């Protein structure tokens, strides 16, 4: 999902983009990663590969760790060897959600689920490799080219007409188009390090669902509920809102509000 818009974003800027599928490159294999790097000699590598099944990671942590931890390590090592810059996309789920205010880039991670632990392992591996890198933490992605919360809500709204959505988890919905633009601008700055890159403004999943149905003009019986009403294998942080500082100070702007992003995404689905 992110790879589609990231590829489009860089191509529209005139860059030569080599977009490799998982069949063309398994990032968990160091020799394969090194071979690709030596073949293409890129100046910038953006890792859009990830194991994103949050609940599935509880039962298959090894797989999550291979893709989200070892894969970024392999990319970071190979990038250093060819003097390429790496952009590693990470997640709000590295935080435990216990804070009542947004998380800053230097707040200590403390993931509460296996997925979050695997992504935090990947962040540390990238930093330890010794090359040049950006870590772009983001959250609650929606966009074309993959399943997402927006599409799920639209489908359930059509099928059921009545839906309960949790109202005690708060984060930042983020459109892959806006994330790709910000990452492209960030990668041009030379200001390496960790950044929080999301659309502006917090929301609960219930807030997000209500906005989806309103923007789509759908009448759905939407009811808020607590997380405890929907037990899942993986815990979710109650608050994973990310503080963007110093993103604006680095690229000159913040991505627009998520409500605006949602309307633009829905207009593309029509």
Automatic annotation (TrEMBL):
Residues 1-269 form the RmlD-like substrate binding domain. CDD domains: dTDP_HR_like_SDR_e. One of its GO terms (molecular function) is dTDP-4-dehydrorhamnose reductase activity. One of its GO terms (biological process) is dTDP-rhamnose biosynthetic process. One of its GO terms (cellular component) is cytosol. It comes from the Bacteria. The keyword Oxidoreductase applies. Its EC number is 1.1.1.133. It holds the Pfam family RmlD_sub_bind. Pathway: Carbohydrate biosynthesis; dTDP-L-rhamnose biosynthesis. It is an enzyme of class 1 (oxidoreductase). Keywords: NADP, Oxidoreductase. This is dTDP-4-dehydrorhamnose reductase. It comes from Desulfotomaculum copahuensis.
